[in-house]
Amino acid sequence: MFYLEACGKFGNEAAQAVRPCIPTPTVSDQGEPPERGSSDEWTGSPASSPRTALEAKMASPTPHKRTPAKAAIAAWIGTTLEYYDFAVYGTSSALVLNVLFFSKQMPEGLSVLLTMITLAVGYAVRPIGALILGPVADKYGRKFVMMLTLFGIGGCTFVIGCLPTYSQVGVLAPILLVVVRIVQGLCVSGEQGSAITMSLEHAPERRRGFTTSFTTLGASSGTLLSMVVFIPIASLPEKDLLGWAWRVPFWASAVVVAVAYVIRRNMEEPPAFIYVQAIRMKITPFRQALQFHWRAVLRVAFCALIAGTSYMMQTFSVAFATGGYKLDKPTMLLVTTVSAVIALGITPLSGFLVDKIGRKSMFLIGTVGVGITMVPYLWSITTGNWTLIFLLGIVNYSLFYSMVNASWPAFFAEMFPTRVRATGLTVGTQIGFAISGALGPVLSTALAGPDLKGWIGPSILGLAFMVIAGGAALTTKDTRAYTMDELDDIQQTDHEKDVITASILLPTVA
């Protein structure tokens, strides 16, 4: 194990700087801590006081414990908010925002395309936010970033519901919309990476896939929640829908934020992170991730492109069906709702199987399935056959995309050691999500043509996402059989271990 090797190199005193060797501070027979200036006291860099907060924690009779259930629920509620925002905004883009925030003189296909571009802007800035929030999570804590993103995402969603429309302020309306989406995109970039890392590091060794699958279960619960709110709104007379009702789903995000805050406020950092954080090093997590794990970051980014099929299913297909083929709006929204309900059961089941057959196998099965079934799903919309539309939508999203959603959290996160896990995972996924989130709805809308009737072009785009993501996944190895400590060891080369060991800021022993 790498940390034990580092301990051996520097001796017992310096070993206190390294995770596996951080002991409970020595206590005298009278139960008192060592006197200041004794050989047991740290002096000099990195500790500048005889008792740091960390030492106080380590002296506590109650050791740090993993809390997998609490971590899973906290991660799930945050992702629910993220996908609630995405589904509400995506659905609104297809149904009302294209009318409210752009000139009514535009062709419907063009206004929908411009609205999809505002959706894409939120994804385009995600890599920038990831470069900031990923390292912050590795340095200051997963919980810190999770609380920050919670209020950032929810606040921006609420603000969108307060924005003036094109008829009220003209071209300023879409400008304000884009500004809010940029801020929101920066906040969203740190949510999933921190939440997945938190749940993974709290999870039991043999149930890491199952525990982390609850994070992406929020994709289904968030989508479902948005549909529960939006379907009755979409059924209102057009005058009410375009007047006041469209704002209600955005304002409702405040309720989700309040619930998430109550759940997350008492959450604790994972023991693995607390120990690693105690190691003071010259090299930052950001530099370590880019210097030694850039291949894994790129691998994750390419694998994450499969999310483009989800964006096509939830956003483009609604605009394609209701705008191009004039299918009933509430019924089309019901397709997404039913798919999300079924996915609530299939995602944790798939997460259970991830720990049995492996992360890589489950990811590949889901990726191939979701890419192939996107073709007949889009074709079924052109037929207007609701039975086919529902059946293929369920197979595509509820079955195959649930497999992808259940497997990728553990699959991607386990490609990195603890010290850079949030950074590598966040940067990699957000690059992939930015590309697929921008290209998915926007390019598929453009490929459908100005009348939104073409299905072959968007189908080919879905297959392209499948090929790229599947090809990248084939270059990885499955990590199901390794413990978290073993992952820290195997995911670092000997050269990286030497560099990290040399960068440790050792305490000065009196």
What topology emerges from the helices and strands here?
Blueprint: H1 2-14, E1 42-43, H2 53-59, H3 68-100, H4 108-124, H5 126-140, H6 142-160, H7 166-169, H8 172-188, H9 191-202, H10 208-234, H11 238-243, H12 248-251, H13 253-264, H14 271-277, H15 285-292, H16 294-303, H17 307-324, H18 329-357, H19 359-383, H20 386-413, H21 421-447, H22 456-474, H23 484-490, H24 494-502, E2 508-509
Helix pairs in contact: 3-4, 3-6, 3-9, 3-10, 3-13, 3-17, 4-8, 4-21, 5-6, 5-8, 5-21, 6-8, 6-9, 6-13, 9-10, 9-21, 10-18, 10-20, 16-21, 16-22, 17-18, 17-19, 17-21, 17-22, 18-19, 18-20, 19-20, 19-22, 21-22
Describe what this molecule looks like in 3D:
The chain has 510 residues and is an all-alpha fold. It is built from 24 helices and two strands. The chain has a two-stranded antiparallel sheet with strand order 1-2. α3 (68-100) packs parallel to α10 and α17 (307-324) packs parallel to α21. It is globular, with a radius of gyration of 24 Å. The chain starts with a helix and ends with a strand. Residues 10-62 have low confidence and may be disordered.
Condensed summary:
The chain has 510 residues and is mainly α. The chain contains 24 helices and 2 strands. α4 runs parallel beside α8, α10 runs antiparallel to α20 and α17 runs parallel beside α19.
